[in-house]
Structures are given as C-alpha cells and as structure tokens.
Amino acid sequence: MPVNGGMIVLVVEKNILMMNLNLIPMPASIRFMEGAFHCAGLPKIDGDPWFKTETAVFCGQMRMVFPQEDSGVYIALKRMPQAEKREYYKLTIRPEGITVEAADEAGAYHGLQTLRQLFMTMDAEGLPCAVIEDYPQFPWRGLMLDCSRNFFTVEFIKKLIDALSMHHLNKFHWHLSDDQGWRLPVEKYPLLTEIGSKRRDSRLIRDVYRGGFYTAAEIEDLIAWAAARHVEVVPEIDLPGHTSSVLAAYPGLGCTGGPYRVEERFGVFDDILCAGNDGLWDLAAAVFDTLASLFPSNYVHIGGDEVSFRRWAGCPKCRAKMEEWGVQKVSGLQARITARLAAMLTERGKTPIGWDEVIDNEEESKKLPQDLIIMSWRGRVGGDRAVKMGRPVIMTPNSDGCYFDYKQKDSPEEPGQPYPKPFSLLYDFNPVSAGMTREESALVLGGQGNLWTEYIYASKIAEYMIFPRLCALAEALWTPQANKNFEAFSRRLAVHNRRLESLDILYCRH
C-alpha cells in the first residue's frame, strides 16, 4: 500500500473524483481506474473463514438491496498478514470482481460496509473501478443514547447500531439510569426495576405511568447484535447524582429518607445518594457485578455529572464521612466516592469513565486512579485539563455540536433544546484541541455525539435528531483532516440521504 512517513497518502487531488463515490465517511485514499463493475444480484462471496461473521452480517444487510444472487461475479474477502493501522482495509473494484483485504475482523467489516454503501446507490452504470485504502483517525467513535428519560425498544436500538456501523462508528454508549428511570435488572435490588423504571407521564393530565427496563436476555441479545457489527456497547449507571429513580425504590439510601419519586421533571435535583451511608457501596457492588456479568465491554461509565452538594452539606452522616476521610470541602466527597467506585470497577476488570465534573475538585482529584477516562461535555475545558493531568479523554463538547438534543435549525418549528449549532461546526469537530502537545493529543481517544431524550418521546424523533448529524460526526472522527471539505461533504450527503431512506431512517433536511 502507498505509504509516506507511515501515513497512507491521498492519491486523488482534493475531493473532486472522490465525490463520485459519495461515501460517508470519506476514505483516506481513493485511486480510480478504468472500467466499471456490474452485477445483477449479490455477488458470490469467496471469504476467508476468519471473516465468517462479517460475511454473514454483510449478506444479511444486502438482502434488501439484492433479492437474488449473481453467480457470475465474486467478492473475495482476504486476510492480510499485517497492516500499519488498526481497522485498516483495502477495497479493490475491478470489472471482473471485488476484493476486500484486511488484517483484522474490524477492518474487514469496515471494508464491507463501504461496499454496502456503494451497492445501495449503484445505478445502471455500475461501480467505478477503484482502489480504496482506509483506516480511522481515532479509536473511540461513538454515540450515546439516553434510555432513562425515555425508554427505547431493543428493536430500535438494533436499527440504530446497524446504522452506526455503516458509518464506521464503533462505540454505543448506553445511558441506563437517571432521575427519570432505571433500566438495568439487578437481582439483589429488584425494586430498582419494579419501582424505579416507571415515571408519571407529565404530558397527560391523568396519572399514567410509562417506562420499562431491559431484561438480561434482551441485553445479551443486543450486545451480540452489536458485536457482530464491531460496535462495543458501553453501559452507564450514573452515580452518585441523578439517582431519584434509586431513591424512589430504596429511600433509605438518601440523606433525608424521603419521600422520593421517580422524577417526571427534568433538571438537577438536590436529593442524591447519601455519601455517609455505607449502603451506597452494597448497591454499587451489586450493580457492578451485574454489569460485569452482562457486558463484555472493557469500559463502564459511572456518570458523576451535575451532583448537587446541598443535601450533603446539611447531612450529619455526610459531615461525619468528611471527618473520617479528612475531606475539607463537601465537593471532595464526590472525588472520594468516584475513586472508590473506580477501584471497584478495576477489581472487576473494567476501565471506569466519568463526566468531566469528577475532576472539578483539583486537590481531591489527584487521588483518582490514573486510568479513569474523562468524558468532556461542558465544552472542551474538562478534556483539556484532563490531558494536562495525564488522563485519557473522550471529547463530546456541547459547544462543538456534539449534543444531538439541541435544535438542528434555529426555528420554532424544530424539536430540541433551544441551543442550535451550525452543522458545519460538528463537521469541523476535532477531538484534539489546538495547542495540545504531542503527548497530550495521544491521550485523546476520540469523540462521540450524545442524544439526551428529555423531550424525545419516540424513536422517529430520535432518528430525526441524530441524522444527518451522525454522518458529519462519522467523518469528523474517521477521515484524515486533509481529506475533509464541508462543501464536498454536503454534495455527497445529498446522495447518501438515499441510503438513509432505504433504511427507513428519518433525517433532518438541511
């Protein structure tokens, strides 16, 4: 493969010829050749047994494009001995057939997804012959879906994960608990789902309760679906704040003893888990044991955002805990709790992730384990601080268009929070901040988009809020900076929208 200083070089000038393929995200390199590839149905696949799962998933995805097979042409799926980049693939299109080469399963899958996109918009002229060489810029390319504020079915999440994988995104961050609902079954704490999973529907005058939770079988099924598409499902259980659903089920875990309810309102609430109640650790142990048994992911997100310290400041148990731990400020309790929660996850073989608030107390944050990953959402400041502390970072700043619950257009007719950001801002998003040193930028794992669902009551609304922003995010995290061009992306998107339509995905028309 053409290499210059360890990087695959761009063979075609700018994006002129690349636009003909209308791929999203834009590959690292495309070299066009003479001729075109034609087929009347799905070509036969001559695949390396190593890529058996990737071949099966691709054939299933292609059934809606090709109702029959074309035995006259072939797709050869080959395993390369090595590649300079993880997830690298090489896709060669010739008149007589197509070859996908990769050194690992993820690379093979990405190559097949690029081919999937090409087949979805192939016309009578066939596919232009070309050699595509490609790899990602960041290892963490994700989307967060909040299933606490509103509950979404497994079927919809599967549909969403399949769309993520078509855009080469590889992380599904699953927000499973908040003030408005608890979605994870925990055998030792059955009231979390019996009581904590349902809230009053504030849209209705009469008392109607809505919600739900995911069974262990449903979670395992979803994880297997995602794994076959090389998407890692990363669970989040928010602790110690945003826990009204926990307190409604187990009021003894709060500072006041209640009464509490699963919130139908949205915002930040004073009642959180009591820092001085050792029952907190029994709950965390049971929850983490459940997560460890159900989720093979290397990561668990422990939340830590928007913790109100008002109840802790007036709680005798919390004050006593401050004396026991030698904590000078109430805010220091959160850092100590985060440190212990992180240690509990490490014992279970998981790497903890926390929102950027967990390092707000500068003195106490020094006691946090060094492998705790910081997810920066309040702009870029938290992530920038974290890398200077030598901590790994995932960037998802609300200031850069990564919050998909914000309006897509500045119009009263549009759904979403009233903080619209230009679509081009998200496209230009770079997880590495200007001014970071080489050592600091190496700590940036990547980025993701977040869809909080306070006002997203249905999956079709969720789709509309996610797309086409997810397309811009995918290119921001996958494509080399030198290959990016917003005007060219917009033209490609006009064709790519046909692919979204064929998947029955509702999207905003910019």
Would you mind describing this structure in some detail?
- With 510 residues, this protein is α/β, with parallel strands linked by helices.
- It folds into 2 domains: 3-134, 2-Layer Sandwich (Chitobiase, domain 2); 140-481, TIM Barrel (Alpha-Beta Barrel), CATH 3.20.20.80.
- The chain is built from 17 helices and 20 strands.
- It has an 8-stranded parallel beta sheet with strand order 15-10-9-20-19-18-17-16. Strands 3-8-6-7-5-4 form a 6-stranded mixed beta sheet, covered by helices on one side.
- β4 (42-47), α1 and β5 (69-79) form a beta-alpha-beta unit.
- α1 packs parallel to α2 (105-120) and α3 packs parallel to α5 (216-228).
- The model is unreliable at 1-18 (pLDDT under 50).
